[in-house]
Amino acid sequence: MMMAGSNFMKLSFASRSENEAFARVAVASFASQLDPDMNELTDIKTVVSEAVTNSIIHGYNNRSDCTVTITARIEDETLYLTVEDQGEGIADPEQARQPLFTSKPELERSGMGFTIMENFMDRVEIETEIGKGTMVRMTKRIESKKALYN
Amino acid sequence: MSLHIEIEKGGRKTLIVRLAGELDHHTSEIVKAKMEEALEREGSIHVILSMKDLTFMDSSGLGVILGRYKQITGMGGKMVVCDIHPSVHRLFEMSGLYKIVSVQDNERQAVSSLEVVS
């Protein structure tokens, strides 16, 4: 549901690891309208990287012929992000959120993906269904712009 | 958006690994392969990660660093990180990496900190 007056974008791309950099730079460019400072911009790039990497590695098991979709919306001073795949889904999303938890220990994963998303964003929600896919919704209010005017 | 890696010996048992660019899932595989190969070839047990121009890292980067940390501490070695970019500093702080690796301002200090232990 797009509200009148809000700006938005949608981006779909192949589930290839080289697109992780593309995705975070694209979202950061879009978010730059909110005038984020360097830390906020890094936070946004990092969480996009985490969610897209999860879709590729876990959602699609490293298959490169699937699609990852990102939407971003700006409303007032807040960035609303979704990262979606039509992959395997997450059996236990609460467990996936635990720091250091990884379903693929053999791959040298740090298990910090969701912990980073939760730390760098104001809100993180996971919608997932086995065999259907996963959507991660995140929001972040950009504070730096406000501070400038005060 | 690529990653550059440069590896050189920084002492008898020390490797200096200079990373520049962006370390994510895509580029972490290269870093893992190159570091494992160099550790074996040089017989090194200590690693200095020099990251002045590494402007981005995510949890995949943490994974490869933790993997090498386990590998070298298993051989009795130490890992030192230096010249950390502000954006990577936030990730290290948040993830607790600073609690396990030692931190130095620059490569020279990192090398001398290891000369004391080896």
What's the short version?
The complex is a heterodimer of chains A (150) and B (118). Chain A is an alpha+beta fold.
Class computed from helices, strands and strand pairing of chain A: alpha+beta
Low-confidence stretches of chain B: none
Number of domains of chain B: 1
Mean pLDDT of chain B: 94
Spatial order of strands in the largest sheet of chain A: 1-2-3-5-4
Number of helical regions of chain A: 5
Kindly state the mean pLDDT of chain A as a whole number?
A: 92
The name CATH uses for the topology of chain B is Transcription Regulator spoIIAA
Layout: helices, strands, pairs:
The complex is a heterodimer of chains A (150) and B (118).
Chain A lengths: L6 E8 L4 H13 L6 H22 L7 E9 L2 E8 L7 H5 L15 H8 L2 E7 L3 E9 L2 H6 L1
Chain B lengths: L2 E9 L2 E10 L1 H18 L3 E12 L1 H15 L5 E4 L3 H10 L6 E3 L2 H11 L1
Parallel strand pairs in B: 2-3, 3-4, 4-5
Antiparallel strand pairs in B: 1-2
Characteristics of this structure?
heterodimer, A: 150 residues, alpha+beta, five-stranded antiparallel sheet, 5 helices, 5 strands, B: 118 residues, alpha/beta, Transcription Regulator spoIIAA, five-stranded mixed sheet, 4 helices, globular
